[in-house]
Amino acid sequence: MSMESAAWHSLWKMSGDKGKAYAATTPRRVLEFAAGYKSRLLVFVLFSIVSAVLAVITPVLAGRVVDEIVAGSGIRIIINVALLIALVAVLDAVVSVVVRWFSSRLGEGIIYDLRTAVFDHVQKMPVAFFARTRTGALVSRLNNDVIGAQAAFAGTLSGLVSNTVALLLTAGVMFSTSWQVTLLALVLLPIFLLPARHFGRSVALLRKESADLNASMGTQMTERFSAPGATLIKLFGRPADESEQFALRARRVRDIGVKVAMRQFYFVATLTLVAALALAVVYGLGGMYAVRGDLAAGDVVVLGMLLTRLYAPLTALANARVEITSALVSFDRVFEILDLKPLITDALDARVAKPGPVSVKFSNVDFSYPSADKVSLASLEDVSVLDTRGGQQVLHGIDFEVPAGATVALVGSSGAGKSTIASLLARLYDVDAGSVELAGVDVRQLTLESLRSTVSMVTQDGHLFHETIRSNLRLARPEVSDEQIWQALERARLKPTITALPDGLDTVVGERGYRLSGGERQRMTIARLLLAAPQVVILDEATAALDSANEAAVQAALTEALENRTALVIAHRLSTIRSADLILVIEEGRIAERGTHRELLDMGGRYTELYETQFAQ
After folding, report:
1. What kind of fold does domain 3-339 have according to CATH?
2. Per residue in 35-82, pLDDT tens?
């Protein structure tokens, strides 16, 4: 590595984010994590040592050539040494390829393991976690921090081993060749390291500011360029102000880029100058010794070549603390996610839900949403400290039973607790007190997999992924055929619409399904429900986005789909609840009234008020 290359390498390593403090247990956990790569790490380290040894042999052989020339040795000896130099070069190339291969295998393997571990773990987190977490911050853990952790193995470890070996070997050969020249050359070492520290710190601060600004621009673009965000800006926003905010950050990033470029140039120029001065000392003093006969000419060449290989590992090792700290910080941020305990897990003795009709029973259920410190991280919410206060109780003594195949409707004011009751039935949350039972079994005693196949929900927003219509519908049952998909679309009164699309089932619906109308999205989710064919169905405002004609058509499909199935329906429209076997009026987290449609009207209470203000029309 040349002196200029070493300078650029040093600057690049030092310009990274210095990070924050990490947990004291993080180094131990990293070692435990690395245990799975023990054999590959050992081979990697061994080949890194061989590479460092070969890097020192070449200058020694070059000096040998000069000595043979000065001594007037035969051509054969010189050619043999030259061939040996060529052989070392070939070996060095081969070893470099092997080191690179192991480095890639280690690095990519770690990325794979960490990413899949975090992804699988995040999928187990409760809905409250996603309600509080910034998606961009969570994605960053799967990208930037995982890659930062990878650097600990693929880059830092290799650098520590090879640089340490190269430094010891190089210094040993130099001191054995001429300790006087070596000591004088090392006198310039502080002049070499001081600018590295100074420029490295200043560039690191500028890069951190630039990264923060880029993150802000990324957040702005992510929010404003999504379909709902772009619609909001066009309806209520001020595009000129949005552009000015973006341009302000972009200008600062531009200015920082210019400063970083110039400081990098000053840095490299300074270190190149110091390296040249050190080299001048070696050639001047070494040449003087050679003329006096105290040092061989070849030794001067060896010292000069080794000097370029001495400063590079010295600088890299001096900066190793920063690299190790950055890697540990990245590991710590990944471990933060893995340390979050999922609130919803399978019990040790969990059983599989039995097929057939299923009854539903809520027994004196109390519930409060979990506090932030139980489901989230401050760094994922962009706050300094999480709120540790317990959530306010939202359900009080909810008690009702739905026989298998019957339908219960929940009505009441917005925020009364209707959707919360539905979430408990689907076990998106667990109750604080009481129990929720399916066919006489507490949902906490059922495996999550069997619970998901037993209970399905159609929510208000009709969410779809940015995938094809076929992929979105097969989310319910991946094994279904296209024929079954078309049947479900027909029952959801959506077949003519999909048939008219140029790509049919291969049509990509766009982000959140925004290429479809609100009613079409909702009918897509109903078609997905029809494919899932669960024993218990939850409809949370399932027809809210439909006009009267579509609602009547879809309601007919739902009536067919709900036949012989237990259903819990949340609605504000009379048509969806008139025929319910039981209607519960929920107010302030309590059951205020219960009965059939006619019974509740005869009571003249809260349901009558809702009927007269919301349903009568």
Report:
1. ABC transporter transmembrane region fold (1.20.1560)
2. 777 787 788 778 877 887 787 777 777 667 766 666 666 677 778 777
